[in-house]
Amino acid sequence: MEWLDAFLASGIRFTTPILLAALGCLATSWTKDLNVGLEGAMLFGAFFGVVMGLTTGSGLAAVLLTVLLGMVAGASFGYVITVLRVNVFVAGIVLNVFGSGATVYLLRSLFGVKGTLSDDRIPTIGKITIPVVNDIPIVGGVLSGHTVLTYLSWVLVVLTLLAARHTVLVRHMKAAGEHPAALATAGGNVTRVRILAQAWCFGLCALAGMQLSMGQLSMFTEGMTSGLGFVALAAVIFSRGRVLLLALMSLGFGLSSSVAVQINEEIMPPQFAQMIPYVVALVGLVVLARTSRDGAARIATPAMES
Amino acid sequence: MSTSTTAGPGRRGILRRSGARGPGRATTRLASAGFTLIVGLAMAVLLIQMQGFEPFSTLAAGVQYAVGDPTSIARTIAWGLPLYVAAIGVAIAFRSGMFNIGAEGQIYAGAMASALAGAYLGPMFTGAHLALCILAAAAAGAGLAGALGWLRAAWGVDEVLSTLLSNYIVILFCAYLATGPLRDPSRQSGTTREVVDTARFAEILPRTGLTGVVFLVVALCALGWWLSEKSVIGYRWRMTGESPAFADAAGIDVKGSRIASMVASGALCGIAGAVLVTASQGRFWTEIGSGIGWDAVLVALIGRARPVATLVWVTIYCVMRAAARGVEQVSTVPSELSLILISAIIIAAAARAGVFGQFAAFRHRFLRTKGR
């Protein structure tokens, strides 16, 4: 039973960054500005979490400052795609490349290191151990001993679920995507809602990145997100706007990443094990396209005619 | 194809320029290129200044390193050759509405195929061996991209996400081959065997790395341009990209065009991988591509998938990349400078119309309130 315990516990750990990024991206999918730059935003979050942690020396301050920074960056991203009318797909692709280039650039010019920045002074995000539950065999590994961000991500799932049903803001976001003119007529500000969705997305991506660099490990490595942002994007596309489905998808991807870590090298070469989440996503994409009546969701790609 | 709700009108289809028709077209383009280059230059100056170096002399040293004398020009071109082929490949797919952002994976597949053909198919007549390596690479890339293209055309599987995910699968699979069954036992790291000498292009300018592959690359670029802009097939692909419904109504085989354009795109990206192996590296190793596929996607985006514009931007980017290396040698500015600059340039190019519009609106408002 020990392997099951380890498998589920690490599955929950892997789910956290995917779930956080996917929840952020969900808002942008409501406004039909699907942000494909999750990978880049997460990388920035992971990097600045470490930088803020080293400068302030406190995990909490690092998290708050980085999320704030992320939201400012998201608002500027939103400004670029709404007011300056840059296609969101182009901006997202550029954000990914920019994220991988700029973090390396900053890593080398601020710290003078190449590859990996690890330091004892990087604060970690606190882990919560629930007293009694922790001792129950399998339930303990699932429910207890995770970082604050893991619990926060599941709280956010519930909040998003409630918000999607009951708040005006989410309705405004969906209206900004479905029928902007209607929202404008009803007195809403389409641009502001779209910018807000991007700010939310970037803030959560910053959290997702910090879960990687300060929650699971306490270091920053070049390209440490390694495709998790794209897996989160796949989860958003699969769920087509439904929060619970999104959480389940993220959990599925998290568990399949956990399989990759748990599988012994003798059974399967490590590269094949690492492929599992991507293969699952690709197969899922095909299944989705075959089964849904209204066709698979499309990413809004730009028109190339002049 | 009712599933293909690509960019809607107005709010989203934004790589186009509104005033880019008629006699003012050339000047508009020139103005826009000037604007983006000025933004890029300003960024470069700012970033170098922030590192505490004198920007203009540092930049000049970088440019000197990139294009200062014939040897360095040859070296810069030699670095850029795979990117030319890959960028043309990506542009062809973009033009027909297929957003093939799996170029990175296709480059790896091509590099692996040509490295295997070069190492295991025996020494033979050079020309034949090289042709074999390149064909193997083209087949690998074309097969990969064609399969994903078929999924999109026949089943409506979103090609953006499927090509994106295929990158990771292919790169991991190649890493498995290079570290597992096909590893060169005499080497520590994950590489395949070195290719036989007959599977390598000969240098045409000594000590520059510029090999005879340059003729192949020029021919492929010309072919890509002709295929995309001048041929009947290319016209069908472009119609498919601009309006699938119209193309269908006009009797164009939309499905076939989509698959064929992906096959062509994948073949070119695969050949880019073969160029890496046969012209410089001589073997496959686990990080051979180093982001060329993503560079190709960026360059094709900024060139708005026009072959000529794309090639011009590849050249500019190659000079930028070489100059960034030169800058790194005379200062502590990391060579990732070029990635930051190209990102800024793309956003500037895409936002130009918006920025000018904002500026005009602001001026209008300012003047009006002043007049009252």
Overall description:
The complex is a heterodimer of chains A (306) and B (372). Chain A has 306 residues and is mainly alpha-helical. Chain A has one domain: ABC transporter involved in vitamin B12 uptake, BtuC. Chain A contains 12 helices and 4 strands; from the N terminus they run H-H-H-H-E-E-H-E-H-H-H-H-E-H-H-H. The termini of chain A are far apart. Chain B is mainly alpha-helical. Chain B has a domain at 81-304. Chain B has 13 helices and 2 strands. In chain B, a hairpin with a 4-residue loop joins strand 1 (203-205) and strand 2 (210-211). In chain B, helix 2 crosses helix 12 (307-330). Chain B is globular and about 80 Å long. Residues 1-23 of chain B have low confidence and may be disordered. At the A-B interface, helix 4, helix 10 and helix 12 of A face helix 6, helix 11 and helix 13 of B.
- Approximately how much beta-strand content do the residues of chain A carry? under 5%
**What CATH architecture of chain A do you see?**
Orthogonal Bundle
Taken as a percent bin, the fraction of beta residues of chain B is under 5%
Tally of separate domains of chain A: 1
- Count of DSSP strands of chain A: 4
Shape of chain B: globular
Summarize the helix and strand pattern of chain A as letters: HHHHEEHEHHHHEHHH
Largest sheet of chain A: 2 strands, antiparallel
Residue runs with pLDDT of under 50 for 5 or more positions of chain B = 1-23
Text of the CATH class of chain A: Mainly Alpha
Query: What value does the Rg of chain A take, in angstroms?
Result: 19 Å
Helical residue percent band of chain A: over 70%
Largest sheet of chain B: 2 strands, antiparallel
N- to C-terminal separation of chain B?
55 Å
Oligomeric state of shown chains:
heterodimer
The greatest inter-chain interface is formed by: A-B, 55 and 70 residues
- Uncertain residue ranges of chain A: none
Give the mean pLDDT of chain A: 84
What is the CATH fold-level name of chain A? ABC transporter involved in vitamin B12 uptake, BtuC
